Amino acid sequence: MTGTQEPPVHALLTDGTTVGIRRAVPGDHDQVLRLYEEMSDTNLRLRFFSLSRASARQAAERAAAPRRPGHEALVAEHAGRVVGLAEYEADPKGTAAEIALAVADDWHHRGVATLLLEHLADTARTAGISAFTADALAENHAMLKVFHDLGLRVTRRYDGPEVHCLVELTEDETYLTAVDTRGRAADLVSLRPLLRPRSVAVIGAGRRPGSVGRAILRNIRTGSYTGRLFAVHPEARSVAGVHAYPSVAALPQVPELAVVAVPAAAVPQVAEECGAAGVAALLVVTAGLDLHQSGALLGACRRYGMRLVGPNCLGLADTEQDVRLDATFAARHPGPGTAGVAVQSGGVGIALLAGLARLGIGVSTFVSLGDKYDVSGNDMLQWWEADGHTDLALLHLESFGNPRAFSRTARRVARAMPVLTVDAGRSEAGRRAAASHTAAAATRTMTRRALFTQAGVTATRSIGELLDAAALLHSQPLPAGTRVAVVSNAGGAGVLAADACADAGLVVPPLTTGLVDELLALLPGGATATNPVDATATVGEEQLRACVDRLARHGAVDAVLVALVPTALAAATGEDLVRSLTHRPGPPPRPVLAVLPAQAARVELLPAHDDGTVPAYSDAEDAARALAHAAARARWLDQLPGLIPELTEVESDRARELVAAFLDEHPEGDWLDPPATAALLGCYGIRQIPWAWARDEDEAVDAAERLAGPDGRVVMKAHWPGLLHKSEQHALHLDLRNAPQVRAAHRDLVTRFGDRLTGVVVQPLAERGTELFAGVVQDEVFGPLVVFGLGGTATELLADHAGRLAPLTDRDVRELITSPRCSALLFGYAGSPAADLEGLEQLLHRLSRMACDLPQLAEADLNPVLAGPHGVTALDVRVRLVPRHPHDPYLRRLR
């Protein structure tokens, strides 16, 4: 690579091979020419429509020429060799570009052309190109299939032996699904040597009993690994009973997976040796790599196409019968099962494995991601989706490399299995985010919560809560709703359980008269059955079983929570009330869970006679939270995936031009002034209250005369770049009724703010309505977040807001409107008129579209937004732009 080349973006081909995609540079000329010269006569004719070698030389000169407007060329390279080329030449009179593709003969049918086209299309969209044109010979079936399978809309026109193709570059759901499918298939192939290797070498397996490498080697050997196992040690002939070799090159065969447990300084050299030998994957448990060592490690992995877990991790395990690999230094082997576990923290991983073992929930795959240089939670979700064993996914992720890609994958996987996570870094101390006015409402906590909510991920607050939820989701059917019947043998325990349900957002409804009579007929005298059901301390095992079974099979409730305390009566009669839950006739149609305050463990899975299990919790609050998580998952599954509506009156191109012009004048970014803000909002049809911009006192008076309503009253607001809280700084005057008052207000602002004041905004006094807040904050990692909630001067004090990541579907918008506590005000609370909900939905969709169109939109602040029965109007708007290049989160690339 020459010094003028940009670093490549790495991605996977269909066979799992890693290639680098980058712009062509003049130094690539000889390689591109060699690409053409090594083509067969058949492929050369298909590319140039003739066998002319002169055409090949001209094509190489064009592709490797210095960059010029309207032309772009990308190369795919592997191990320093150019194996593919894609380029376009834009039509100076339109928004289309003609493309050309070339792939080395020995790299056909591996997805090189498709991958190059995806990246070329992304580059073209950024340059304002909306379509590709291409000419091919009709007999070039392979190239025509590449166009057809892209997922983009392709129009063909036949002209004798040639086919003229028009490829529209619009990214829609069909295209994104096609990209997903290709990426998922390539990912799975690349992960197989990592997670199900046929051979493993442990490098750094020391002779000291306490060394990490030796512990991993021992775990692999004692875990009944089915493949070949080697140790690499410069001096020893045997380590922990495994034959050792002095180097990777000395091994009798190239291992698919190398476990690296050497000191940090030696990691880059070991990675280089592994790559040169042909190792397919690395597991690096070593911690403490500096920036140089980290870069060298990842560079070697990318150069040689090795997938990487770590560094700084606990290891990985796959319990599949044909593998049985435990390449961790955990104290115990994970038991086989159906739970997939991926964590960033090794300590969290140990805690989760121990907790699952206590519950009797086995593991299909465990991966400690560590510093997550390469393999991520997204990779693991895709693996579990396809492995044929996993039915429960547990994650602990402290960071996200590509949250929107993760969200898209999680939405799909969560339809097939529960996906649970510990939401780490919720507090300001855990993760602080720089914030101004809008961002003060949109913390990283809200952003993560939006990601999990939209993706259907069950987000818990601790490892214990995650295990609580996992126990219920693993053992019981999902509840159809939030109605819970509470049954107890002690009134006080039932009351506490009912309170816990209410605190968790569940409902403990009164039971119908008919059902109450049925239950009382089953229970001993003195029982009450209004809900909570107090079965009394004299209840017997059969009586309790019949009561719980009747509730579980009745449609009046969605779940049954049974709180039992040990009593002397039960002990004296030999009754085992817990057995009434585990020995029931057949699996229940609704979830049944127990609260056993005398139980030592926080949660257990009690074996049932039907080969099932019943979750038992020591605390009613833990049980109720787990049930609330299950109800939320059921609700998410019941809802159809949302749709992004088509919007009218949107001028995206004009908005981009306005943004580009502003950033040309303000290269470091800034706040828009009111006229520029209004122009930008106008591109998206976002309605503001009538207003006028006044630069002096006379203009303010003229504006007041034009805008005053029937009562003659107006509002005057000061403006200067960066002004955040007008009310706190007394930078506005309300209820101005005549010209003298307008003049006096303007003079007051000029006197107090002096040269800071760039002008004033004059508006008519708004009618009454609910004051709301709507805004956007562009997160560097998560992308645009749309925030909605209570507005006005109390917006930050009360912090009654909700957020969803853009682009918003119709489902997202409905949830966004109904999530804040103030939402009742919009539906006619206490006899007040309902707000224009359709207008609110339109406002949020338009904000979402603006945020997605304009990555330069750092934040937009609409506060207050007045919502009444006759419409939705923004009274005050602030917008900040920063220079930022668009980034396609769905473009196939490795981290």
Structure characterization notes:
By secondary structure, the chain is α/β, with parallel strands linked by helices. It is 36% helix and 23% strand. An eight-stranded mixed sheet has the order 1-2-3-4-5-6-8-7, sandwiched between helices. A seven-stranded mixed sheet has the order 11-12-10-9-13-14-15, sandwiched between helices. Strand 13 (257-260), helix 8 (267-277) and strand 14 form a beta-alpha-beta unit. The longest helix has 23 residues, at 173-195. 47% of the residues are buried. Mean pLDDT is 91; it is low at 429-442.
End-to-end CA span: 21 Å
The total count of helices amounts to 28
Tally the beta strands: 39
Q: Please mark out the parts with pLDDT under 50 across 5 or more consecutive residues, or reply none.
A: 429-442
Radius of gyration: 32 Å
Query: Which strand order does the major sheet show?
Result: 1-2-3-4-5-6-8-7
Mean model confidence by pLDDT: 91
Biggest sheet descriptor: 8 strands, mixed
Range of helix content = 25-40%
Taken from the alpha-carbon principal axes, the silhouette is flat
Strand content: 15-25%
Structural class: alpha/beta
Quick overview:
The protein is an alpha/beta fold.
Task: Summarize this structure as a short list of keywords or feature phrases.
single chain, about 900 residues, alpha/beta, eight-stranded mixed beta sheet, seven-stranded mixed beta sheet, about 25% strand, flat
Question: What's the arrangement of secondary structure elements?
Answer:
Elements: E1 9-12, E2 18-23, H1 29-37, H2 41-48, H3 53-63, E3 71-78, E4 81-90, E5 96-103, H4 112-126, E6 131-137, H5 141-149, E7 154-159, E8 162-168, H6 173-195, E9 199-203, H7 212-222, E10 228-232, E11 238-239, E12 242-245, E13 257-260, H8 267-277, E14 281-284, H9 291-304, E15 307-309, E16 315-318, E17 325-328, E18 336-343, H10 346-359, E19 363-368, H11 377-386, E20 392-396, H12 403-414, E21 419-422, H13 437-441, H14 444-455, E22 458-460, H15 463-475, E23 484-488, H16 491-503, H17 513-522, E24 533-534, H18 541-552, E25 559-563, H19 568-573, H20 579-582, E26 592-595, E27 603-607, E28 613-617, H21 620-638, H22 652-665, E29 670-671, H23 674-682, E30 692-694, H24 697-707, E31 714-719, E32 732-736, H25 739-753, E33 759-764, E34 770-779, E35 783-790, H26 795-798, E36 801-805, H27 810-818, H28 837-853, E37 857-868, E38 871-874, E39 877-881
Parallel strand pairs: 5-6, 9-10, 9-13, 10-12, 13-14, 14-15, 18-19, 18-20, 20-21, 21-22, 23-24, 23-25, 25-26, 26-28
Antiparallel strand pairs: 1-2, 2-3, 3-4, 4-5, 6-8, 7-8, 11-12, 16-17, 16-19, 27-28, 29-39, 30-33, 31-32, 31-33, 34-35, 34-37, 35-36, 37-38, 37-39
Helix pairs in contact: 1-3, 6-11, 8-9, 10-15, 11-12, 12-14, 15-21, 16-21, 24-25, 27-28
